[in-house]
Specification:
This protein has 130 residues and is an alpha+beta fold. The protein has one domain. 49% of the residues lie in helices and 18% in strands. The protein contains two helices and four strands, in the order αββββα. The strands form two sheets. A two-stranded antiparallel sheet has the order 1-2. α1 packs antiparallel against α2. The longest helix is centred in the last third of the chain and has 37 residues.
Length: 130
């Protein structure tokens, strides 16, 4: 039972880490401009799936947001077209920050589960030695 808890929480740690990686990638590229002829940076999303066989979750894959982005006026950019427009990703900063908090809290909660399960296992070993 204790090992199940460690395995399940460990799988959730992996999913939350991948989610944090995707969010950090999105935040790092939120102001990445491209020419209007090119695609915008595409927001990353992580797809999680329940693992029916042994419990826990796993990353089923990733998906990308729209490459259309949004047009912004920036005539000083070397990427600007004749009208001074560039293409920026259509990433909402407040949504990314909310997701960051949720992913971080999920990671912390699952790390605490692993720590408590480890402590329980160690305590059971001590009882067995006595």
């Amino acid at each position: 039972m204790t090992f199940d808890a460690i395995g399940i929480a460990g799988s959730a740690l992996t999913v939350h880490r991948k989610w944090l990686d995707a969010i950090s990638d999105n935040l790092a590229n939120i102001n990445t401009a491209t020419s209007t002829a090119d695609a915008a940076f595409q927001e990353r999303f992580v797809i999680a799936r329940a693992n029916e066989r042994n419990g826990g979750v796993n990353v089923a894959g990733t998906t990308l947001g729209s490459a259309e982005g949004r047009l912004a006026y920036d005539p000083t950019s070397p990427l600007a077209d004749a009208e001074g427009m560039v293409r920026l990703p259509d990433i909402d900063l407040s949504q990314q920050m909310s997701s960051l908090i949720m992913a971080q809290r999920g990671y912390e909660a699952n790390a605490a589960v692993v720590d408590r399960a480890k402590s329980t296992y160690e305590a059971a070993l001590q009882i067995g030695r006595s």
